[in-house]
Sequence to fold (394 residues):
Amino acid sequence: MQTYDLFAPTTDAERHALYARMRAEPGLCRIEPFGAYAAARYEDVRTLYKDAQRFSSEALAVTAEPPWLGPNPIAQSLVTKDPPRHTPLRALLSRAFGASGMARLEAQVRQEAETLAEAAVRRREVDFVDALSFALPRNIIGRMLGLEPSTFTEFKRWSVNMGLLSSAVPAQYEGVRATVREMEAYLGDVIAARRRAPGDDMVSDLLRAEVEGRQLTDEEVLSFLFLLLPAGMETTAQLIGHAAILLARHPEHLEHARADKTHIPRFLEEVLRYEPPTQFAFRIALSDVELSGTTVPAGSLVMGLVASANRDESVFEQPERFLPGRDKGTQHLTFGHGIHFCLGAQLARMEARLALEALIPRIRALRLRSPDIQWLPGLTIRGPQSLPVDLVPA
Fold:
């Protein structure tokens, strides 16, 4: 069985060439630096997501608490739970992210997107991350949770550091440890304040809610917030950031969207397939299992390489080409599959769509100010850490 080093590629071309070699293997591969088995093909990754009887999601609890970090509330969150514990907790959170909740939120997101886009185009030369792609989901999730706007400036650092959990190097350890301590203190104070004086926000809703006849503990609410705060920002931020990069590299799609805004959802689905914000997900084999002819021993970590699955030649025709509106364009695995399908998928799609609907009519060109993009550190989250652009007004 071939072993591959995920840190070896230094360019996008090298990264996708590595994934292609892994897909060509007859079975699973082994991955360094994680010491895990890896599934690179679409059907294998899909199986990892949907088969909770053989592959447990509690792997995230393992990867979220490496020896150098210690206890981490996210290790007790919804995404680390298997049925039956997962089911009532998922039902509880689904209320906030369902269709009715998103419909109520849409006007607020649209107004925020319009405000940010107008300000960005007026300035013309901006860091797109700070001006729009991170600012929009940061402001929305902060308001959903009823957090103090003056603290929003900390969220990006927290989000970046939490994204390093599964691939941090020693020089990054203390930054991650400090972030966990700061988030515990900050969110703990928020929970205590809502216990004393509930408001009209998601934290108060969680504290009032009941699961199987009992209310959530402060520790359970804290674990939800550790998950929701970074996740509520990162997926959308990287989706909008990648969209900006691809609009700059494929300006014909900017023209298509200017002429017909119904092109925007098709464009965004292809962005999600082509450059998924989350590159992989972990599971643990609950028993000795076979996947694609490879026997995986019980207790082994198995990594599903989403970025590779989304370019599987057996599913997507010409997968290396960026083709909005392609056949099977919505069948990517970026938001997962099965019981852990991303709760925030509808919100991420809505925020990205409204961001582009606000931006595109205001510009006639989006130009990268440098061909070299500064990417986020780590392997899990893929997106620009900063993105200097020139927004040419319409």
